[in-house]
Amino acid sequence: MPEPQPDEPHVSGGQRATENGAIAATGLDGTMDLATTEGETLEKGLGNADAGGPADKAHSLWSDAWRDLRRNPVFIISALVILFLVVISLWPSLIASGNPLKCDLSKAQEGSQPGHPFGFDGQGCDVYTRTVYGARISISVGVCATLGVALLGSVLGGLAGFFGGMSDSFLSRITDVFFAIPVVLGGLVLLSVVTSNSVWPVIGFMVLLGWPQISRIARGSVITAKQNDYVQAARALGASNSRMLLRHITPNAVAPVIVVATIALGTYIALEATLSYLGVGLKPPSVSWGIDISAASPYIRNAPHALLWPSGALAITVLAFIMLGDAVRDALDPKLR
Amino acid sequence: MGRYVIRRLLQMIPVFVGATLLIFLMVNVMGDPIAGLCGDRECAPATAAQLRREFGLDKPVWQQYLTYMGNVFTGDFGTAFNGQEVTELMASAFPVTIRLTIVAILFEIVIGITLGVVTGLRRGRPVDTGVLLTTLVVISVPTFVTGLLLQLLLGVEWGWISPSVSSDAPFDELIVPGLVLASVSLAYVTRLTRTSIAENARGDYVRTAVAKGLPRHRVIRKHLLRNSLIPVVTFIGTDIGALMGGAIVTERIFNIHGVGYQLYQGILRQNTQTVVGFVTVLVLVFLIANLLVDLLYAVLDPRIRYA
Amino acid sequence: MLLEVRDLRVEFRTRDGIAKAVNGVEYAVDAGQTLAVLGESGSGKSVTAQAIMGILDMPPGRITGGEILFKGRDLLKLKEDERRKVRGAEMAMIFQDALSALNPVLTVGDQLGEMFVVHRGMSKKDARAKAVELMDRVRIPAAKERVRDYPHQFSGGMRQRIMIAMALALEPSLIIADEPTTALDVTVQAQVMDLLAELRRELDMGLILITHDLGVVADVADRIAVMYAGRIVESAPVHDIYKAPAHPYTRGLLDSIPRLDQKGQELYAIKGLPPNLTKIPPGCAFHPRCPMARDVCRTDVPPLYEVTPSDGTRVSACHFWRECLDDRVDGHVNG
Lengths: 337, 307, 335
Fold this sequence. Notes:
The structure holds 3 protein chains of 3 kinds.
Chain A: H1 13-26, H2 31-50, H3 55-70, H4 73-90, H5 127-163, H6 165-179, H7 183-191, H8 199-226, H9 229-236, H10 241-277, H11 289-296, H12 304-332
Chain B: H1 2-30, H2 45-55, H3 61-73, H4 86-121, H5 126-140, H6 143-157, H7 175-201, H8 204-211, H9 216-245, H10 248-253, H11 259-268, H12 272-300
Helix pairs in contact in B: 1-12, 4-5, 4-7, 4-9, 4-11, 4-12, 5-7, 6-7, 7-9, 8-9, 9-12, 11-12
Chain C: E1 3-14, E2 17-29, E3 34-38, H1 45-53, E4 61-70, E5 73-74, H2 80-86, E6 91-94, H3 98-101, H4 108-120, H5 124-137, H6 143-146, H7 156-168, E7 174-178, H8 186-203, E8 206-211, H9 214-220, E9 223-228, E10 231-237, H10 238-243, H11 248-255, H12 295-299, E11 305-306, E12 315-316, H13 321-329
Parallel strand pairs in C: 3-8, 3-9, 6-7, 7-8
Antiparallel strand pairs in C: 1-2, 1-4, 4-5, 9-10, 10-12, 11-12
Helix pairs in contact in C: 4-5, 7-8
C-alpha cells in the first residue's frame, strides 16, 4: 500500500488533502484556493500530455492555446477589460477630467448630476473621478505583487523541485508554516505598524505571504516535467543541470504558474481592498477602491452610490483577471481539447 | 494507521513552532507590548523598565518565545490590554466564532454541494451556466463588499435581520453573517463539486453501474456521489481552520464579538499577548483540522491506506 | 433469435461536426451462440454494443434509426424503467478494463451483491452470500475472505473474473463482452477467455464478443461479423471466413495475423487509416484503402450481398465479393 510521502508529488490522496488544506489557509476567505487547486489539476494534465514529446511539443501547446484563446469570447472580453483598466490606470485623465482630491463638502452624499454621473461621496468628492483614479493602485498592487510572487515562488519552488532532497523538504516545511497563517491576519499584524503611505509595504507583504502558493505549484510542475521520458533521456545523455532546467523543464513547467498567477492577480487586488477596508493597507489621501468603500460604509444608507460604484469597479476588475486565468487554463488544458 | 498518526503529529511540531514563531516575531515588530498597559498615558520610563523586566521583555526574542510557549502549555496565555486574562477573552470569543463557522460550513455543505451536484449533472444547460456565472461573481466580489451589501439590503432596507449581532450571538442571528463568511468557499465548493461530479459521471464505473440496471437515483447516490464527494469533503474539512482565521472581516461588518473581533482589537491596541495567544490557538485548530482531514481521506477512499 | 439488430444508426455530436459512428448495422445472435464482432477502433463495434445495452452517452450520442429486437421486443421502444430492468438481469456487459469499470470505493462483495438487492430484492446478508457463491464460481480463491476486499486489492486477472461474475450474477440470456482480455497479461488472457467460454456453455447464453484480435475468435466464436466505419462489411460462420474471406477488408485483417508458416515474410498491414467518422468517403467507405477498388466503389454504396454457395447466412458488403472469394481459392495470397 502506498504510504503518503509528503515530499513526493501526487503520491497519494492523503498528500493532496494536505495540499488543499494548506492552501485553504492562505486564501482571502478561500479565494486563492480556486487558483491553486485548479492549477494543480492543470499541471497534472500538462504533465500527461507532454509525457512523450520534446520541447517542440510545448511550443505547439502554446500555439494551440493561443489559437483557442483568440476564439474564446470570455478571453476576448476579459482581455479588453484588463487592457482598458491598464490604460486608465496609466492615464486616468483620458476619461476623467476632474481631480480626485478636489472635494466640496457642501455636495457631500449628493446623487448623480450633470458632469458627475456617479454623484458625490461623504466628503463631497466626485465618485466618478475617484473610481477612475482608484484603478491605478489596484492594478499596480496586483501586477507588482503577482510579479514578485511569481518570480520568488517559481525560482524557489522550481529549484527545490529540481534538486529535491534536503533543500526540498526544508522548503516544503517552510511553505507549510506560511500556509498555517491566515492571510488577512498576517496583513493586519504586519501592516498595522507601517506608517508609510505607499503601495510598497502592501506589495512586500503580499510577496512575503504569497510566494509559497506559487512555489508549491512550480515545484509540483517541475517534478512532473522532470519525470518525463525525454527529460530523463536528456539527463542520460549527459545534459547539464542548467541546460535541462532552461531548455527542457522551464518551458513545460511555466504554464501552470502563469495560470495560477493570473487568477491570483485578481485575488491580490481584492486583498489590497480588504486591507484598506480594515484600515491597514493604504490610507487617505491615497485614492483606492478599498479606502472609498470603507469610507462609504458608515453612511451606506444615505449614499449607497458612493459604495456601489467603487465596489462594482473592484468586482469587475477581479472578475476580469479570474476569467482571464480561467480562459488561459482551459486553453492550456489538453484534456479539454 | 497508528504509526502514520504519530508521524503526522511529529511533522506538525515544526510547522506549529514555525508559524507561532513567525507570528511572535511579526508581533514583536508590531510595536511596544507595554504601550497599552499604563492606560491611555505613556508609561513613565521607570515604570516601563520595570514592566519590561516583569514581562521578560529585556531578554532576547527567542528566550521570550520559549517562556511564552512554556506558559501556554500550562494554560497561561497572559493578560490582555484591559487586564483581563487572555484565556477569558478566548472563552467568550471562541464559542461565538465556532458557532459562526458551523453556520458557514452548513451553508457550504447544503447549498454548495447541492448546487454542485445539480450543475455537474446538467453541464452546459442554462442552470449550469447560470450557477457557474454566479459563482464567478461571488468569488470576484470581496467578502467585505458582499457583507456590506447584504447588511444594507437585508438589515437596513428590508429589515429582515438586525444589522449587527448581539453579544450572545445566537445561531439565528448568525445566519446572514455565516452566509457572508461562507460565500467565497461556497462558490468554490460548488465549482469543485461540479467538476468532480462531471468528471466521475464519465467514469467507467458509473457506466458499469448503469449497465447493471441500477435505478438512476441509486447510480447517483451510491456510485457517483460517494466518489465525487471525496475531494469536496476534504476541502470543507480544511476550510474549517481557514474560516475561523478569516472571520475578521465578517465579524467586523456585523459587529460580532468573536475571535476576529478580539484579534482586531488586539492589533489596534498593540496587545501582543492577545494576538499571539489567539493566533497560536488558530494555528493549532488549522493543523488538527488538516490531520483529521488526512485521516478522513483514508476512510473515504480505500485505495489510500496509511502504513 | 435472441437478439436482432436491424439497420441501427448512431451519431455523435463532436466539435468537428456530426460523427456517424454506426450506419445501419445488422447482426443477430441466437441463444447458445457466440458472435464475434471484429473491427479496428472507431469501427463502431463498441458503440453498437452500448446502444444494445442502452448505456450510450446521450448526449452527445443519438440513435437515429433502426431496431434492437431482444426476445422479440424492440428495446428502443421500451420506457427507460422497463429498459433498466432488462439491463443486468437479461443482458449484461463485461468491460475491457476492470480496474476502472469497478467502483474503487465499494467492496467487490457490495458490487456483486447489489445485483441481487436491486433486481431480486434480496437482503444485504443474502446478497453477500450470493456474492461469495459467484466468486467461487469464477474460481477466485478464498472467496469468503476476499468478498470484503476492494477492487484495487485484486490482480488484473482476478478483477476481470469479478467483472465476469457480475455479468453472470442473474444468469442473463445475453452477455456482451467488450474486449474482455485486452487489458490483461498474455498468460492470463487465455485463462479468462476459457472461463468465459465455459460459463457461457454451462448457462447456454448468447455471447457477443467484441474484439480486434482474430486469434481469440477462432476458438470460441460460431459466427463473425466484421465492422468497418460503422457498417457490417462481412458476416459469416467462423470457418467460412477463415477459409476464404468475401471482403477485402476481412482479408486484410486475416493477412495481418502473424503466421508460423510465413516466417521471414514482412507482416501485412492494411494501408492507410480508418476514415474520419465526420467525413466518411462516398460509395464504399473502404475504397480508399482497398487494393481492388474500382470506379463503382467510389460512387455506389455496396448493399449486403448474399454470398453463395453457403447456407444463406453469409453476407458481404463488397461489389466484387466473388472475385475476393476466388482470389483466395486460387491460392493467391495478397501480402
